[in-house]
């Protein structure tokens, strides 16, 4: 039995769960997965608090230690699996990677609201607020800057896969789900993220899940 257990929300919708899961997968970690369906009957916050002090997913249990919040889990994984090089080795690249990862964790509320993650659907024509459009432009600016300055030697933001890519992977799925018009650099980056075997595995498992959150499924439905 693995010493690591990751508690997740629904794979279809839980962007924060995807971030932590993808970091661990790309690190080559051996871990168990426990899915706690969100907004489902019989799954109150109190149940999640059995595994996560914040009452939110994801949470990583390592022996008697519990780590919660996606970026904290990513930092822990980087220390636990140094050979995976989850942060760029160069100091300047590493500093920028941490900056854009923290920005993803703390910003883009309008984007999250307008385009919630749903990896099982393709939805066209969702109306965007000005704030959501500004968030999309900012994400593309980040991607272009990182690829231009640090992306040599690979197809990800800092060349090889890093925590920063895990932080932005759910945004890549959102852009794909909702058919968001992107510049050429951003389109290629989204394609690279979605082509990861781990991402393909996540999406395949999401399609098998029976759990539905009606509020997210209603987006893009005529009359809603």
CATH class assignment of the largest domain:
Mainly Alpha
Strand content: 5-15%
Secondary structural class: alpha+beta
Order of helices and strands: EHEHEEHHHHHHHH
- Average pLDDT over all residues: 94
Percent in helix: 40-55%
Lateral arrangement of strands in the main beta sheet: 2-1-3-4
What is the name of the CATH architecture of the largest domain?
A: Up-down Bundle
Number of domain modules: 2
**How many strands?**
4
Rounded to the nearest angstrom, the distance between the terminal CA atoms is 46 Å
Radius of gyration: 17 Å
Largest sheet: 4 strands, mixed
CATH-defined topology of the largest domain: Glutathione S-transferase Yfyf (Class Pi), Chain A, domain 2
pLDDT < 50 runs, ≥5 residues: none
Please tally the helical runs, counting DSSP H or I stretches of 4 or more residues: 10
Shape: globular
GO biological process, one term: L-phenylalanine catabolic process
InterPro entries: Glutathione-S-Trfase_C_sf, Glutathione_S-Trfase, Glutathione_S-Trfase_N, Thioredoxin-like_sf
GO molecular function: glutathione transferase activity; maleylacetoacetate isomerase activity
Protein name: Probable glutathione S-transferase
């Amino acid at each position: 039995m693995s010493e690591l257990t990751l508690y997740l929300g629904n794979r279809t919708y839980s962007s924060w769960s995807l971030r932590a899961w993808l970091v661990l997968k790309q690190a080559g970690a051996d871990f168990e997965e426990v899915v706690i369906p969100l907004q489902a009957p019989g799954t109150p916050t109190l149940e999640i608090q059995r595994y996560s002090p914040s009452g939110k997913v994801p949470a990583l249990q390592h022996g008697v230690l519990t780590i919660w919040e996606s970026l904290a889990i990513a930092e822990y994984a980087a220390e636990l699996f140094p050979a995976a090089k989850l942060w760029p080795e160069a100091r300047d690249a590493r500093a920028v990677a941490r900056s854009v990862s923290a920005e993803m964790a703390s910003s883009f509320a309008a984007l999250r609201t307008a385009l919630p993650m749903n990896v099982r659907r393709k939805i066209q024509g969702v109306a965007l607020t000005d704030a959501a459009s500004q968030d999309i432009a900012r994400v593309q600016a980040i991607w272009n800057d990182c690829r231009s300055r640090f992306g040599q030697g690979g197809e990800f933001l800092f060349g090889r896969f890093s925590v920063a890519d895990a932080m932005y992977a759910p945004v890549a799925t959102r852009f794909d789900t909702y058919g968001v018009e992107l510049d050429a650099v951003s389109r290629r980056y989204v394609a690279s993220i979605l082509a990861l075997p781990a991402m393909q595995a996540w999406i395949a498992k999401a399609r098998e899940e029976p759990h539905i959150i009606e509020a997210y499924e209603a987006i893009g439905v005529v009359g809603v």
